[in-house]
Amino acid sequence: MFKIGFIKLGNVASSLVADLALDEIAERTDVEVRSLSFGAKMTVKEAEMSAELKGWRPQLVVIVGPNASTPGPTAARALYREVPTIVISDGPSKKEAREALEAEGFGYIILPFDPLIGAKREFLDPAEMALFNSDALKVLSICGSVRLVQEELDRSMASIVSGSPTLPHILASPEKCTERMDFENPYARAKAIGALHMAQTVAAIDAAACFRLKEMDRIALTAAAGHEVMRAAARLADEARELEKSTDSVSRRPHSRSGAILAKTGLLDKPEPV
After folding, report:
1. 95-117 tens-digit pLDDT
2. How far apart are CA 29 and CA 20, in angstroms?
């Protein structure tokens, strides 16, 4: 039984499903998952508390959350240098910072379209937080980001079992993600690419609200604008999914009990080995 542990420091939409996507109907017999979440907080204090996962002796650790360059995630990685570790985050996107992660032996999947939320009291409440995450998750799920994460984690686990650990080093793009979804209708894929590009712009909008603006009305308006863009991206992604559904061509890739990936397209087709 392969042991994979997840440490969730802070929250991005990927945090909600990265672990669930490995065993979507809870029937895999080859993997055991343990997740340690610290809610919205991601300081060094939470990172140090994540050391409790070591007692479980995971064979692969995945650290999920915003901005992996900040002190909290950095401290968490330092605790797991001796264990194959993959970072899933919205950053760093700069080449030098990603090369530094790789040089230290860490894998990474950077998703720039899993963006910063408008985290200002002048705008954000629990309901708005949940709505933003549901919109972001719809974009990531329909447009291939969730599948990219799931496939790379499955591939990493298989490589560790084989004795030749190979971790991903991926700065995801809209084109790379949508390739994973096997869209049959080019207009559906175009909509999915557009949705991811829209989601990527949200980070810059919300960053202005969170870190640069000072006047209350500008903060609230700008954060709201970022969330409206994410809502529009979710609607566009939904249009892509509906196009594929209309021709019975939705790509599905469930896990078998053994963990092998199966595939089907037609709704009434039987999942078959890839």
Report:
1. 999 999 999 999 999 999 999 99
2. 15
